[in-house]
Amino acid sequence: MLYNIIPMNINYANNKQAIKVYEKIGFQFVEKYMQKTNGGEFGFIKMKKII
After folding, report:
1. Got the DSSP string for 1-51?
2. Cα 42 → chain centroid
3. Mean pLDDT in runs of 10 for the chain (51 residues)?
4. Domain assignments of the chain as residue spans, ordered by start
């Protein structure tokens, strides 16, 4: 039987509680970056999980 490996990426504003939840369910940190949105520039986190 063949299995497909599907990478899931999430991007969200820096939120410590969200980071803990995503880490508990298996997401791993990829990068932190700044993005212009809503009239300002904010820190975002990218996390990844292979399912």
Report:
1. ------EEEEEEE--HHHHHHHHHTT-EEEEEEEEEETTEEEEEEEEEEE-
2. 15
3. 73 82 92 89 89 82
4. 7-50
